[in-house]
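[recover] target loaded
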């Protein structure tokens, strides 16, 4: 401006870029603006890629999504979620680095700090950094978020670049950072982000590595041959790391720093659960516990409380009812929050229903938080709630399967109100009976129920061990769960003895001894029955003592001592009805008939079996009444009363099929085979024997006396040409088979056992 000359130069509106205000300009003019920014070198901000294993499916899914978006002319957006340390960033980096040749516009990277102590990164600050990386001078970055986003999208509209938004907190934090054009954006988060699907995003979830892939990662981390030299130890190590890549890398890094140590040393260090998270850390660097602490940061208070309470749960899986028992009405929302944070794994597809489990290292972390953040009173109450939740529902199932069973007293006197299972958990499906649905629930929850039995003393409620074991009685023989049968009764007996509960000791001895008989340990079973008999006598329990007569008779029967067995059964059959237990007396008489049949005294067998059946039917015991009918039928075969034998055996087979009693159904099929032999129908007899043998095998009793006898009879009936050529097809001979007996079709379910209720337990 010269002298009095005055120049007016006004600027209005919003302008991005350089602005030159001048009245007179002399000489050359050089303006730095958009054209100059285009000369800025592309940013290459991505961190280096690291080795990944077992992620080919995830990378393929990301590429399929990118190709589809590109073909449709859209930007590519993908979100990778998973537990802290599972390798989300590693997968995203492997994918984006591979795209560099096709995206010359550059790479932008931002750590969005979802779990940072100071809070998540501000999208406005992040987009400002992106603008500066793309060549916008500091002084020309717009002041507001909206203006920054508009300029960011203008600059990326015609530019092919990739963006990695690491550790995002929410979809809302991510949206302002999405570029325009045909750029590719990857988002990683500890939380599931279904909201990005609304923006065209493809969401994938990463699970921990398989054992083989984790071993491969350990080998790559060590790179010194120790994995090849110690393959079993390496596998044990990665199993302790539960497939979490961060944990495997830390364990490998610690071993790499000690080249003379064997892998066994790290296995020992991780084998102690209390020390495992401590061992999975490198001072001042990576730390599994720290990664999980970050995942917990920001949880709603109810979810944080449920997290630590579930850390006390002794089993691996749990359902929504258990969470309600611990937290009440806030449980469902808290479970959703834990699932969204990838702290819980949804296993509904594997197990049916709403069920969850912890990753192994997360469970250890939750247990630590319970000890660190919760009070002793909170932990005690939670443990009692867990134990009584399972006891209450096991009792409910028990009553469905065996209504009115004479059970041990159940103690709910500690002020705990357990949440009942959801109604649909006990609802029959696919033609099930109510009893089958209840048995299915018991079997599905058995790992949790057994965990409570094992931890009852540590939970401060030792009585749970024998009360829960007693409630599980209907399950064990019906589903042939012998290992759990023996273990639970062993623990129940131990705790009952420690607590001085004589009634519980006797029940654990008798029902536990039946498990011994079922597994062939007849001598130990007899010893347990005799201990119970002494205890009943000392306590003045005449009924309990009379029941042991029947039990001891069963053991002698299995040991081949038929005379001793018959004497004990006869005493039980006389004593039990006089003491008011008609059903147990009928079972003793049934067992007496079984001995008579074995000794060829068919008339005695038929009389005792028929008398037993009438009482059992009146008592509503359809299963044992069917067994008695089958025994009557087999006795009638021996007596030559073939028409009655067919009626009794056919009715028994139909009833036992309906009860899914595989072993007893096989015995009846053997009777039908003998009936066919007596009628001169060897073809039909062979068919019955084959079906019986198939059932014996299906219930694990192919080595039983009955199965061996059936196999021998089948061999004797085989025609000469079949013996010469075992693979020759069976063709009907002169004995055209009659119509099949009722209930001789394929078994509904090949489970069941004769011990269930056989001794009046």
């Amino acid at each position: 401006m010269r002298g009095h000359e005055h120049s007016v130069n006004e600027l209005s509106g919003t302008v991005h870029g350089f602005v030159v205000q001048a009245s007179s300009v002399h000489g050359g003019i050089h303006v730095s603006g958009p054209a100059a920014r285009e000369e800025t070198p592309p940013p290459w901000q991505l961190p280096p890629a690291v080795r990944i294993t077992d992620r080919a499916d995830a990378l393929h899914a990301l590429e399929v999504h990118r190709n589809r978006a590109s073909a449709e002319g859209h930007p590519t957006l993908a979100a990778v979620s998973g537990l802290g340390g599972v390798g989300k960033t590693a997968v995203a980096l492997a994918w984006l680095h591979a795209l560099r040749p096709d995206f010359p516009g550059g790479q932008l990277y931002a750590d969005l700090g979802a779990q940072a102590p100071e809070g998540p990164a501000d999208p406005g600050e992040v987009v400002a950094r992106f603008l500066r990386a793309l060549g916008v001078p500091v002084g020309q970055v717009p002041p507001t978020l909206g203006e920054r986003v508009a300029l960011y999208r203008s600059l990326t509209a015609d530019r092919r670049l990739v963006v990695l938004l690491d550790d995002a907190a929410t979809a809302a934090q991510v949206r302002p950072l999405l570029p325009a054009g045909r750029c590719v954006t990857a988002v990683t988060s500890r939380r599931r982000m279904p909201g990005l699907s609304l923006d065209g995003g493809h969401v994938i979830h990463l699970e921990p590595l398989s054992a083989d892939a984790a071993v491969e990662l350990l080998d790559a981390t060590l790179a010194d041959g120790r994995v090849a030299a110690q393959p079993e130890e390496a596998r044990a190590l990665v199993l302790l790391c539960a497939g979490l890549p961060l944990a495997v890398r830390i364990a490998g890094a610690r071993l790499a720093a000690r080249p003379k140590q064997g892998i066994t040393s790290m296995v020992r260090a991780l084998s102690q659960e209390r020390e495992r998270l401590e061992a999975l850390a490198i001072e001042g660097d990576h730390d599994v516990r720290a990664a999980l602490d970050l995942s917990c940061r920001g949880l709603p208070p109810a979810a944080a409380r449920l997290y630590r309470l579930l850390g006390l749960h002794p089993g691996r899986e749990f359902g929504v009812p258990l969470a309600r028992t611990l937290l009440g009405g806030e449980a469902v929302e808290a479970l959703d929050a834990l699932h969204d944070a990838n702290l819980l794994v949804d296993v509904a597809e594997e197990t049916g229903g709403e069920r969850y489990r912890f990753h192994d290292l997360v469970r250890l972390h939750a247990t630590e938080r319970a000890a660190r953040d919760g009070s002793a009173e909170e932990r005690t109450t939670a443990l009692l709630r867990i134990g009584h939740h399972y006891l209450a529902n096991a009792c409910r199932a028990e009553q469905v399967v065996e209504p009115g069973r004479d059970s041990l007293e159940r103690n709910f006197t500690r002020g705990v109100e357990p949440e009942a299972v959801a109604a649909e958990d006990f609802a029959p499906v696919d033609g099930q009976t109510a009893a089958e649905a209840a048995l299915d629930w018991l079997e599905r929850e058995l790992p949790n129920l057994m965990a409570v039995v094992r931890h009852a003393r540590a939970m401060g409620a030792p009585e749970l061990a024998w009360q829960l074991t007693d409630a599980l009685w209907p399950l064990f023989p019906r589903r042939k769960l012998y290992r759990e049968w023996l273990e639970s009764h062993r623990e129940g007996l131990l705790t009952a003895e420690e607590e001085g509960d004589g009634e519980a000791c006797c029940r654990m001895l008798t029902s536990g001894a039946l498990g011994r008989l079922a597994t062939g340990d007849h001598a130990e079973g007899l010893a347990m029955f005799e201990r119970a008999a002494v205890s009943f006598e000392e306590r003045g329990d005449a009924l309990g003592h009379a029941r042991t007569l029947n039990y001891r008779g069963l053991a002698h029967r299995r040991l081949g001592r038929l005379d001793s067995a018959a004497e004990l059964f006869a005493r039980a059959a006389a004593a039990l009805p006089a003491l008011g237990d008609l059903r147990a007396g009928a079972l003793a008489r049934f067992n007496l008939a079984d001995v008579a049949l074995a000794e060829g005294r068919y008339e005695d067998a038929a009389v005792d079996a028929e008398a037993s059946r009438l009482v059992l039917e009146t008592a509503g015991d359809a299963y044992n009444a069917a067994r008695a009918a089958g025994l009557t039928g087999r006795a009638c075969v021996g007596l030559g009363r073939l028409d009655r034998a067919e009626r009794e055996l056919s009715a028994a087979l139909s009833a036992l099929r309906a009860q899914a009693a595989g072993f007893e159904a096989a015995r009846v099929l053997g009777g039908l085979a003998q009936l066919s032999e007596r009628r001169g129908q060897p073809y039909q007899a062979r068919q019955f024997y084959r079906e019986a043998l198939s059932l014996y095998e299906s219930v694990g009793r192919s080595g039983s006396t009955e199965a061996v006898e059936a196999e021998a009879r089948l061999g004797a009936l085989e025609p000469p040409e079949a013996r010469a050529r075992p693979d020759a097809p069976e063709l009907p001979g002169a004995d055209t088979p009659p119509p099949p007996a009722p209930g001789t079709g394929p078994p509904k379910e090949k489970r069941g056992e004769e011990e269930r209720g056989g001794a009046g337990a």
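[recover] notes: The beta strands are 76-81, 107-111, 162-166, 184-189, 202-205, 317-319, 345-346, 355-357.
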